[in-house]
Amino acid sequence: MERGGAVQVQRANTGFIAAIVAVATIGGLLFGYDSGAVNGTQPGLKATFGLTEAGLGFTVGSLLIGCFVGAFLAGRLADVMGRRKVMMLAALLFLVGALVQGVAHEQWLFVLARFGGGMAVGAASVLSPAYIAEVAPANIRGRMTTVQQIMIITGLTAAFVVNYFLARAAGTSTAPFWAGIDAWRWMYLMQALPAAVFLVALTMIPESPRYLVAKGRTDDARAVLVRLFGPAEADAKLTDIRASFSQDHRPRLSDLKNPATGRVRPILWAGLLLAVFQQLVGINVIFYYGATLWQLAGFSEDQSLQINIVSGLVSIAACFITIALVDRIGRKPLLLIGSAGMAATLIALVYAFASGTVDATGKLSLSSDLGTSALVAANLYVIFFNVSWGPIMWVMLGEMFPNQIRGSALAVCGFAQWFSNYLVAQSFPLMAAGLGLAVSYSLYAAAAVVSFFLVQRFIHETKGKELEAMEG
User: Fold this and answer.
1) What is the CATH number of the domain that holds 246?
2) Using alpha carbons only, what angle is made at residue 245 by residues 243 and 248, rounded to the nearest 5 degrees?
3) Is residue 470 in a domain?
4) What's the rounded Cα separation, in Å, for the pair 126 and 142?
5) What is the tens place of the pLDDT at every residue in 300-321?
6) Which of 33-56 are b and which e, b meaning 16 or more Cβ less than 10 Å from the residue's Cβ?
């Protein structure tokens, strides 16, 4: 009877954890959808607001400005308000930002709404994986957090699919559609539905037990831990969690410095390495400017939107490989495999773009063979990224920091990740126009090569370690 009861409790706990993860990762879905919705709307933005290439880069990149602000504020607010409340605030920003972006007729209003949506993306990007890491058992924590990346790519792919069918149904992305509203505007308005679902679902999950302990709410923390792991395990975990926090003060930004040396903790530098190089390899050029990129390479708008969908589906499949491997072979080996694979495929893309011809208008044209080679290389690149740096960076940022500094470290690393993302997105249209695709992608390939050696030297494995065992 006791054995049967124990099995039943364990199943109930696993189901409860899975339900929490499912809700938290809706933030990842919105992160992906909001990031990908702009892909395919550039013609509408340029025509409606009369944008130059630099203006388009700023309008697209305004989301990313909001992202690095939102990531920093969310990391800090998470230690003050709690993980769940800040995610609820992000859900509200997602909802309002989607509606305003869809109806704005002034560029400043569109940019403001996109900035607000970006703050929500930044908040969700750092808090969803951190929250999952704080409620999941160590032996499956990598798999649970990787679900976040699957949801990000699902959101991106959903945006690509919706944009493709809206543009196709209307004729072009700039043509009027439902209610006389241009199709490109509906590409933003469609984000409101998952945002509303996220907001409601967040009311049904508990607060992080690590946050509750940090706030001195020990009884509340124990109640959550009992629901997660059962009474016996809850008491042991509660003792470990309490011991991991400083006894003389609550978590604060200054904890990122080692009090003995006065220097920034090495673990923060490792986190910054992961955050920055995940963007310097150029992945979001494909996600944000995929339609534009492939049109530059000689494909039509319709073909380019279809290629985006294929890339998204390939990305989702790659993440399932990560789920199978992340808690078996570890995080560091996957990062190394990813760096090597991305370097090789980016070099192949550089070769294809360098071998193309440029017509009188400056448009790059690829032969059938080169176009096929570029398409295969790009999708292999996406696979390597999504097997490794895509999910693993978020897994490690959510788990690698000690409890005392997790919120502050996430604030700094989240800011750095999104600021790097912004610089890459802002610079690509100008680089592509001025330097060409071959030179631009050479820079991303060089970053992939460098990342391999940095991971070898500075990143330490976190597989199977309890959060309370993380060292700073």
Assistant:
1) 1.20.1250.20
2) 110
3) no
4) 15
5) 767 776 777 777 788 888 889 9
6) bbbbbbbbbbbbbbebbebeeeeb
